[in-house]
Every structure is written in C-alpha cells, then in structure tokens.
C-alpha cells in the first residue's frame, strides 16, 4: 500500500458541518438526531493522524472525540480493508476513522507509555502511565475489539487494552475513578488500570482514554453465553463476582470520593424522576417511529403504550420504599462488559464508565447496586431471546446468577439480597425502557426484544381496559 500522506490540521478546520454529519451520523457512538457539527479542538499524532474534538448540536450538548488518519484514496486500507466511510480531502487523499485505520493507535500507544502530551488547536491531550508501563516495550501491533462500539477499543500488542472515549465531558470520569480505586485495592475481578489519557478543552480537564492490563485466554461474556447450553455454573460464578464488586465499592474511604451513603428522601425522589424521564424518552421515540415498524411490532408497541402507566406506577411505588445504602456502581452492566476464563471459570469485569449516553455527572452519582443486577438480568434475557436458549434458559441462568450474588455476601454487609428485594423489579423495568430508546435510536432490528420484555413485565400488574383507539 502507498505510504500515508501528511495530515494538515488546517484541512480539518475547513470541513463543513454537512461533511462532518455525513461522516458521523448513524454511528452508534454519535448522538441520534444531531443537526450540526463543528471542529472545536485537534492535535496531530505523528504525520498522518490526529485526535479531534467535534461539538454536535443535538438533544443536549455533546462533544465527540475521533481519531482520524489520512490515507490515499485507493479504495482499500491496510490488508485490503475497505473503509465504511471516508472524507475526501482532494488530491487523492481521504480521511478515515480509527475503526477503519487501527494502526493510527500505535502512535497514541507510544505516547501513553512515555507520558507524552499532544498539543494542537484549542486542545491538549496528556498521558499518564504507571511505572510498569513506562518500562515496557512500545507495542508494534494493534487489534480492534468488537468493531464499531460506543468507544474505540483495541489490544495494543502485549501492553494492554486501550479504550478511546467517544464522548468527551469535563469533570470526574467514573472509568478513571473506579479503575484507580479497584486497582489500588487489588480487586481480582477487573484488569488493572495502567494509563490514562486526558484532554484539556480550555474549559477544564476531561477523560479521553484509558489503558488496562490485557487478560489472555479470556472469551467475551456475551459470546460465551450464546454458545453455552447450560449457563447456570458460569452464571452463579458471575453473580459472586458481581457481589464482590459491590462489596469492594462499599467503602468508608472519604478521601477516595467513593464513600457509601445512606439513602434519603431526595435520592428516592431523584430515582423516581429518572424512571419517568427514561420511560418518557422511550415512549416518545416509539411514537415517532411507530408507523415505520412492522405490524407485529406495532401490536407490541400498542400494548406497551397502553400498559406503561400501570407498569411505571408499580416501579415508582417500589422505588419510594428504597432504604439502606447507595454506592458507586458499574452503571452499564451486561454480558458484553465481562470476560470469561474457560480454564478457571473466573470472570473479569470491564468498562466502568457507566452508560455513555447519560451525562457524566449522572454517571458519577451513587446508585442502587441492584441496578447492575438488573442490567445483567436483562442481558440474560437478550441472550435467551436472540440465542437458542429461550425462556427456560433465561430463567435458569438468571436464578443461578441471583443465587451466586446472594451467597457471596460479606457477613454484616449493608447491601441487600437481590432475590427478595422489591427494588429489583423496579430496576428491571427502568432498564427495559432504557433499552427500548437505545434500540430505536441505534439498533432498530432489536426493538422487539425490549418490547416483548415490557409486555411480559406488564402482565404482573393490574391493567387498564383495552383502548378502542390507537395509542399512536
């Protein structure tokens, strides 16, 4: 392949909002419905790549980070790869994103190891590495993980697994906070934090990326679940690892900013408001896209809309009874955030950044630990419905997970048991509405999964009479 051309930051600054929108719209990590985009910061990595900050005019303020690489417009990239999208710069040069040019991450990896800084237009990126990483050799290979996800993740040789955050917000970032906390305490169910990348936007510092230790021999938790006819043993072990995570995050260490707090009335009110807002967003999107749904999905949508108030009233009543303690939690917990070791049967937990579509301040709040439990139960539901296991597989797997979670409780722990808690159902209901909004925005082919789940959840509450007119 022809050597990559040099990238000029001035060429990036001259790109129009329409060009950026055409390049970014529809990607899972870019806000749905964005109306305009402008470049607000950039810095070069070597000669042919650049880190960029792009401000999107969307439902709420949103700054996206992308790693771009310039290459000749030959139709293919490294090893014959055809980029999904590109921006033509003229002169036979095109811009591609890191998911289409992962070798651009090598320069960034070297900078992480060396604790380098990358300064450019209106932004400065700075790396901070652990002592062990500084002594390691620079990685010479890179392998993307999972294709296009909420963030760019890649294995950098033997150095570790790097995640470049797509959404940039000034303030405390849970991935860094929880990573530092768990690494300092030697938590066995998460890879160690090795390096951090931050960016100064002129308005303050924001987390831009993170490097964790590489765990060889592990398989993706979601893939393992789909391939596992009997998941009860691994699910029980995952329940125990999840409880261990929550016990580790139950701390009186005030200096860490992670100290446990008692639940008070303001917290219950906050959770009820969050429930209602999540459901309203999902139902609003469902109404907007109703006429584009297949007939069988329209029927499910009608049932969900009809029964939603009764379902939400049930969840709200449960949330108003919340008592005990609240802690920092994972925040976006599902099988895709785990790795399984088939040899030892051990689980590792990844990606402590919380739900990327939620505001950073919200992701840093203390929450009910049962929100993580509900997230994993919903992930089992997806695996059962998308895979071949079906309802029986889901029920057995969920029961084993809950049993493992409760059995692993530390004596005297202030955290509740999961199986008997009335709050668990409320958390499952809210998670299902969140999934509905997400699928409608980013994966419409999966909309049937949360719709079917919400219908099933609604069957346990008193229902209104069937309406004569469509809810949409």
From TrEMBL:
InterPro entries, A to Z? Aminoglycoside_PTrfase (IPR002575), Kinase-like_dom_sf (IPR011009)
Could you tell me which SUPFAM superfamilies the record lists for this protein?
A: Protein kinase-like (PK-like)
Q: Which residues form the Aminoglycoside phosphotransferase domain?
A: 142-407
A Pfam family hit: APH
Signal peptide residue numbers: none
Q: What protein is this chain from?
A: Phosphotransferase
Q: Which organism is it from?
A: Nannocystis bainbridge
């Amino acid at each position: 392949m022809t050597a990559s051309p040099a990238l000029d930051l001035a060429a990036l600054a001259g790109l129009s909002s329409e060009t950026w929108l055409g390049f970014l719209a529809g990607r899972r990590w870019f806000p749905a419905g964005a109306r305009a985009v402008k470049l607000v910061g950039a810095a070069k990595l070597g000669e042919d790549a650049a880190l960029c900050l792009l401000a999107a005019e969307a439902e709420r303020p949103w700054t996206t980070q992308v790693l771009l690489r310039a290459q000749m417009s030959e139709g293919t990239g490294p090893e014959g790869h055809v980029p999904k999208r590109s921006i033509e710069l003229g002169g036979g040069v095109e811009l591609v994103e890191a998911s289409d040019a992962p070798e651009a991450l090598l320069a960034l990896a070297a900078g992480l190891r060396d604790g380098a800084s990358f300064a450019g237009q209106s932004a400065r990126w700075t790396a901070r590495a652990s002592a062990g990483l500084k002594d390691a050799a620079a990685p010479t290979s890179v392998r993307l993980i999972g294709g296009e996800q909420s963030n760019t993740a890649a294995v950098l040789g033997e150095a570790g697994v790097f995640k470049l955050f797509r959404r940039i917000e000034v303030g405390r970032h849970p991935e860094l906070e929880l990573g530092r906390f768990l690494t300092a305490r030697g938590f066995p169910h998460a890879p160690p934090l090795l390096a951090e990348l931050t960016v100064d936007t002129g308005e303050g510092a924001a987390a831009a990326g993170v490097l964790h230790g590489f765990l060889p021999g592990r398989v993706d938790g979601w893939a393992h679940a789909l391939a596992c006819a009997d998941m009860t043993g691994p699910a029980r072990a995952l329940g125990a690892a999840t409880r261990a995570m929550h016990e580790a995050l139950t701390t009186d260490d005030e200096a860490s900013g992670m100290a446990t707090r008692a639940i008070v009335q303001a917290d219950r009110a906050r959770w009820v408001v969050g429930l209602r807002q999540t459901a309203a967003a999902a139902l609003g999107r469902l109404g907007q896209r109703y006429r584009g749904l297949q007939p069988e999905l329209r029927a499910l949508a009608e049932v969900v809309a009809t029964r939603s108030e009764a379902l939400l009233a049930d969840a709200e009543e449960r949330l108003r009874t919340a008592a005990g303690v609240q802690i920092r939690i994972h925040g976006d917990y599902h099988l895709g955030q785990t790795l399984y070791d088939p040899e030892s049967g051990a689980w590792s937990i990844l990606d402590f950044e919380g739900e990327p579509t939620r505001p950073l301040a919200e992701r840093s709040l203390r929450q009910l630990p049962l929100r993580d439990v509900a997230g994993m139960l919903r992930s089992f539901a997806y695996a059962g419905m998308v895979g071949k296991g079906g309802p029986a597989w889901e029920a057995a797997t969920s029961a084993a997970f809950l049993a493992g979670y409760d059995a692993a409780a530390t004596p005297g722990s202030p955290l509740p048991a999961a199986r008997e808690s009335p709050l668990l159902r409320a958390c499952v209901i809210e998670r299902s509405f969140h999934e509905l909004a997400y699928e409608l925005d980013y994966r419409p082919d999966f909309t049937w999964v949360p719709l079917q789940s919400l219908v099933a959840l609604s069957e346990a509450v008193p229902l209104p009479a069937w309406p004569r007119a469509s809810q949409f």
